[in-house]
Prior knowledge:
The protein is of the alpha/beta class. The chain is built from eleven helices and twelve strands. It folds into two domains: 1-98 and 299-359, no CATH class; 114-256, Isopropylmalate Dehydrogenase, CATH 3.40.718.10.
Amino acid sequence: MAHKKIAVIPGDGIGPEVIREGLKVLDAVSKVSDFSYEKVDYDFSGERYLRTGELIPDSAISELRQMDAIYLGAVGHPGVKTGVLEKEVLLRLRFELDLYINLRPIKLYPGVQTPLRDKGPKDIDFVVVRENTEGLYIGVGGFFKKGTPDEIATQEMINTRKGVERCIRYAFDYTRARNQKKKLTLCDKSNVLTYAHDLWQRVFKEVGAEYPDIQKDHAHVDATCMWMVKNPEWFDVIVTCNMFGDIITDLGAAIQGGMGIAASGNINPTGVSMFEPIHGSAPKYAGKNVINPLATICAGQMMLDFLGEKQASALLEKAIADALASGRLKDLSANSGVSTTEVGDMIVDYVFRAAGSKS
Ligand code: IPM
Ligand code: MN
């Protein structure tokens, strides 16, 4: 396997701490597999913005396009107005690099506790394919008569035929390749969003005709939330719009053991992709060495997979599963009593064990 160039953006708050553990684990994996990499650091963050007034220089965007992958910690700084870093760093990267899929696996590993009574690892194992470049996120809208009693505020949900189709097509291909229940559920609100989600319905049906081997299902977003709690075993892959994907994957994180383990890939299937935990920068925990870095480590595992480093990815997945099965990490929250660095060290240990048991 060729040497990989990975851009690393630790970001703010706990971002640098979890990324440090993620890189520690990748280093271990590279010692015992064919995977080798070099990292290129980028300090885009609220902290840099406050210091220099700069968010992401345009030149950096072109540099990032030349990378094999991007590994991101978290952005969000209490000193910066809400929305600035989200829009100018995270969403800018998603939009400009055309990372049009946000892939979010919801998997309960054996040894991890779920708040769902009577549900276990065999029940909670599905993937959300979230559209990542359109919908309510693109910032079309504005104010009229702001600050007056007659104020109007609008924010439009933009759905393009091209954007919806490429997302749905990706989800069908993904469901086929995943080869589990071979079932794809469209999650929308077509009973109310009778234009925007009518488009999703029509495209789902049309594209779906090309996938006779895939079972098609549908659930409105409110019902999806209910089924994710009552019968998560019904799901295999869910495809949905940007905003609903954002919301249901926080619920997904909760049922898979919490934000401490929920990872995601912002995917451009023909370009560079970016991998990150779905949690934020959690400033109140910054520098305390208490946040669980597993979500970032799991994002690193997704990154290896997407880089085509199948051996390295399988090894890391086994290490994560074995560490969790040991029961030493039942609680993945900031109050688990196991420190950020201890979790990183533990996974490194299991990487070496996994490599040893293979040879
Ligand atoms: C996520 C986050 C982001 C989103 C925020 C930080 C803009 O919540 O990745 O889920 O809404 O997409
Ligand atoms: Mn979110």
